[in-house]
Write a structure and sequence with these properties.
Blueprint: H1 3-24, E1 30-37, H2 46-59, E2 65-74, H3 82-97, E3 109-113, E4 124-127, E5 130-133, H4 136-139, E6 151-153, H5 156-171, E7 181-184, E8 187-190, H6 202-209, E9 227-231, H7 236-241
Protein name: Peptidase M10A and M12B matrixin and adamalysin
């Protein structure tokens, strides 16, 4: 059986197991277990930054959350690309759920962070309960979350950090339509579920965002904003979609 076929079958089993556990114990904290690729694991301060920024965003969106860094690393043939992020990692999680891989998945979110270049697409991947994001080296350059405001100027490190929130949001049920963009003076602020798609080429932006947010209102025109900023917290609308 090839890896894509295995993912189709085992992924369903994993999802069913998750649904039953969450329904039986709703007061339990949402657990995000984080794995790093072998290369990403060498980045100083990366684990602290991932825990800090995910914790700050999810603490404000969920009743209880636990960020758990796995003790083992993940060997990948490549640090980015559709095959590594969207096939190899989900298959590894599914295999781990049935005792066929040396990882121990959780029932909420299983996040892989790699050292891939976040400027190359696809930079991330998500499906229910599984997420992957590139940019480990850039995230490690961010200041500690406790020293960083919830809205920051656009930069590659900030975009890579926001990508973590974006993919985890998808894994918990939020979509691009749960994102917002707002003006702050001459600046335009993109929330995590919109992210850098706000400034993407028109055909990409239209395909990914559509015309209006489910949170209300059309997305503003990005061309006449003199500054780009990124939000590092989920909006109330996105928080309401997380489960």
């Amino acid at each position: 059986m090839n890896r894509r076929a295995f993912l189709g079958g085992a992924g369903v089993a994993l999802s069913l197991g998750v649904a039953g556990r969450r329904a039986a114990s709703p007061p339990d904290p949402v657990v995000v277990r984080v794995w790093f690729s072998e290369s990403a694991a060498t980045q100083h301060a990366l684990a602290d930054r991932v825990e800090g920024y995910l914790g700050a965003a999810l603490d404000g969106a969920l009743e209880a959350v636990e960020i758990d860094v796995a003790p083992s690393t993940v060997a990948l043939p490549h640090e980015g690309g559709k095959e590594s992020l969207g096939v190899d990692w989900p298959v590894t999680v599914a295999e781990g759920a049935v005792g066929m891989a040396d990882i121990d998945p959780v029932g909420d979110v299983n996040l892989l962070v790699t050292d891939g270049d976040p400027r190359r697409q696809p930079a991330g991947y998500a499906r229910p309960r599984i997420a992957a994001a590139t940019g480990g080296a850039y995230i490690a350059r961010m200041a500690p979350a406790a020293e960083t405001p919830p809205v920051v100027p656009y930069s590659i490190p900030a975009a890579a950090t926001q990508l973590l929130l974006h993919e985890v949001g998808h894994a918990l049920g939020a979509t691009h339509s749960h994102g917002t963009a707002r003006r702050e003076g001459d600046a335009l602020v993109a929330s995590p579920m919109v992210g850098s798609y706000l400034w993407a080429p028109e055909r990409v932006r239209e395909r990914q965002l559509g015309d209006e947010s489910a949170c209300g209102g059309a997305y503003p025109d990005a061309d006449d904003a003199s500054e780009r900023r990124l939000g590092l917290r989920y909006t109330d609308c996105a928080a309401g979609a997380l489960e």
